[in-house]
Amino acid sequence: MTAGAAVAAAEQNFRLLRAERARRSALALLLLGILFVLSAWVSELSPAKLAAGLPRIGDYAERTLPVLRLSHLGEDLAEWFWDLGHWLQLLAETVVMAYVATLLATLGALAGCFLAARGLTPSPLAALIIRRGFEFARAVPELVFALLFIYAFGLGAMAGVLAVALHSLGAQGKLFAEAAEAARRAPMEGVLAAGGNWLQAMRFGILPQVLPVFASFTLWRFEINVRNSAIIGFVGAGGIGEALYTAVRLLHYEDVSALLILLVLTVALIDQLCARLRHALIGRESAR
Amino acid sequence: MMPRPDIAAWRARAPRAFAPPLARRLLAWSTGTAVLFGTLAALLWLDMTPQRILNGLSELLRVALLMLPPSPGERPMELVWAMLETLAMAFAGTFIAALLAVPLGFLAARNVLPLGPLRFGLRRFLDVLRGVDQLIWALIFVRAVGLGPLAGVLSIIVTDTGTLAKLYSESLENADRREIEGVRATGAGGVQTARFGLLPQALPLMLSHALYIFESNVRSSTILGIVGAGGIGFQLSDRIRALRWEEAAFIILMILVMVAVIDSISGALRRRLLASGR
């Protein structure tokens, strides 16, 4: 075979491969397109409905904007944020709800994670049951738990706290158990060899290794729980969500924008604080 | 036999080996006490008394027993349709968001758009889209365009255009510079460089992000119906408000199964995508 023929054969092969790939991409795109058209039909997403709906959204957004005149800025702002005291109290309640929920979930996850960790657990059966429990708690949205808990515990913040806590327990338990599984075994074996029991082996062999990771996860989860506590009020389970729900339902347009601004600011503030704390934690750990 | 170590003597010689200094211990104790009292105050504020918790738990147990056995109720097709609606909302919303996020993601990537201030403004705008929770958008859209799945789709589009544009721009920024420079060295223009130098590197990662967001939207679209934005959540809150517990339990089980199935399909697809990208 001459060099020219070899090149021609290679090019032919390349063309075939490219054609095959193009065919497969086209097929995948076609499939995606069909799925999209079907789902757009099921979810009532039609150009006509969009054309009717989008102007109304613009209209809605316009109505949430307050009248702010430069000459009367103070009075206009005071009118926009007319219920500021009450709203700040609700925001504080939201953050406290997130704090208690995170605390409960962290305690539960701490108690369960060593039992659920593969290779550390004294009982594989208990590990399996606890892991399934964490999975269930993680898979059910907190709003669904809230709907159930409102019936059992009555309207108010307690149902919301427990709902956020239960969902959070599922997420934190899984992360904690995985971190414990990844810890080095030598310190644990050392404690066992010195005559310590299982609890002591976990406390002095594993916990010191994973504590910074746990703290960092917990701070991160607290940020998420602040967001979740803010929406849990939509079903009547306490926090700023109740005020937001009322404002949207009763068409108090300017209240909606005021509440959203307060909420976004609070969430950003909490995120900043937690990020600082996390960096301080990690910094101290790496300096050691 | 080894002689017993004299612990008291060692404690006197090296006190730090047995306990941290007094100041540190005092600080730890006082912080602990403050946190304890703060937490007790928080519990009191939220009215979480042991009495209420015990009453609630016994009520919860009663409800849990009422949930057995889960039953689909008289109109099972209604639930199947609501489930399809949930999936459709997640798919249509993610699909549109994934497309809208492509130009935004390119504009927000440092190695594509060197204009600092424009990029900064765009990124803050995307942050605001993501910063407000999907359920809040849904609540507002239900008020603006009416009850039904359209409001849910719109809320998914708004939040996840922001999320995906950010993820896309990060995938693009992480692309290998040498491949881009290689394409540019052949005389390619800006668009051609992006198409042949940047896109082949970033595309598998971008698709995998979109799939991941789809998974997360399947989860979150199950609750959008609670504020009236279509899907299975509406059926669920309806059953709970009517105290039809067996049907509520059935719907929760349906949600768990659907989420698990979608997760495993999407997870398998994502692993294949990332393997092909390497």
Structure, described:
The complex is a heterodimer of chains A (288) and B (278). Chain A has 288 residues and is mostly helical. Chain A folds into two domains: 1-44; 83-287, MetI-like (MetI-like fold), CATH 1.10.3720.10. Helices cover 83% and strands 0% of the residues of chain A. Chain A contains eleven helices and no strands. In chain A, helix 2 crosses helix 11, helix 8 crosses helix 9 (198-231) and helix 9 packs antiparallel against helix 11. Chain A is flat, with a radius of gyration of 28 Å. In chain A, 35% of the residues are buried. The mean pLDDT of chain A is 89. Chain B is mainly α. Chain B is built from eleven helices and no strands. In chain B, helix 4 (76-108) packs antiparallel against helix 9 and helix 8 runs antiparallel to helix 9. At the A-B interface, helix 1, helix 2, helix 4, helix 6 and helix 7 of A face helix 2, helix 3, helix 4, helix 6 and helix 7 of B.
Number of strands of chain A: 0
Low-confidence stretches of chain B: none
* Molecular shape of chain B: flat
Summed up, the helix count of chain B is 11
H/E element sequence of chain A: HHHHHHHHHHH
Instruction: Give the tally of β-strands of chain B.
Output: 0
Which architecture of chain B does the CATH hierarchy give at level 2?
Orthogonal Bundle
So, CATH architecture of the largest domain in chain A? Answer: Orthogonal Bundle
Whole-number count of domains of chain A: 2
State the CATH class of the largest domain in chain A. Mainly Alpha
Backbone CA Rg of chain B = 28 Å
Counting helices, strands and paired strands, the structural category of chain B is mainly alpha
What is the approximate shape of chain A? flat
Identify the CATH homologous superfamily of chain B. MetI-like
Tell me the greatest interface: A-B, 61 and 61 residues
Major sheet details of chain B = none
Which fold name fills CATH's third level, the topology of chain B? MetI-like fold
**Mean pLDDT over all positions of chain B:** 87
Order of helices and strands of chain B: HHHHHHHHHHH
